[in-house]
Amino acid sequence: MAIFWILLNILDTFIQIGCIRINSERIKKKEKNFLFFGEFNCVSSEKISNAFSWLATRSPKRNHRCNVPEIVANIRMNGVLSQSDTLQSLASRSDDGIPFFVKKCIEYIEKEGGLSIEGLYRVPGNQAQVIEFERLFINDSSVDLHSMEMPVHAVATALKNFLSGLPDPIIPYDAHEALVNCISENSPEGISLIKDVINSLPDANRKTLSYLAAHLARVAKCSNTNSMDVRNLAKVWWPTLFRPNFDSFESMAIFITRLEMATQLLILYANIAAQ
């Protein structure tokens, strides 16, 4: 039983970083032995089941391959999202082109004094409360969170889970390089480049990103009380916004810093994104 809980703790750790993908086919063999997920996505229960299988079959005491039961295969890993949901389809159901769940979470966080709560978006919410919030939303999207006094950290975690669970990142892959290139431009020209990149995004991505960036900018303004300045916010948000596909650990080491800096720019210039 102790081993089972250890495995769950390991799994939970990888769920937290599940939006980062590494192409195992291009990683050296010795690196594969370290990374037991070739490609892990928090919305894929199949990958999670494979992870459990890997751990069991790599036990130093094994003398045969283990048959691991599919104990997690039916867990709903994508929260309020259905398999057919995309950012575009969800945005199309909203009058302003921003998914209703995103607005509901952010509005609740700000109205409930979340901007002043220490560690907002850095401190994870209680998993049971996150699941309960998602369940309530699935049953009734108009559920009144204020009357339920839902913890802000739980709602903040649910928001990040939602964006991580979308089929594609909120910042499309073909825009990553252009945004990263903006980090070397500390000038009006650089600001203009950021605006151009944001304006080139599909409507659903642009509007949702702008709405989120404006919210994060408001969070950063309260960093004296919440300890979440632009830099700290960028550290916890860049994996969710970009969900990069790294070819190797070397490229990951290089681009993590750049993607983090690009996220800082998006928050700093949120007023541009909102134009």
Automatic annotation (TrEMBL):
Stored SUPFAM superfamilies: GTPase activation domain, GAP
Domain of life of the organism encoding this protein: Eukaryota
Protein name: Rho-GAP domain-containing protein
A Gene Ontology biological process term: regulation of cell size
Organism of origin: Dracunculus medinensis (Guinea worm)
Signal peptide region: 1-19
UniProt KW keywords: Signal
PANTHER family for this protein: RHO GTPASE-ACTIVATING PROTEIN 190 (PTHR46005)
GO CC terms in record: cytosol
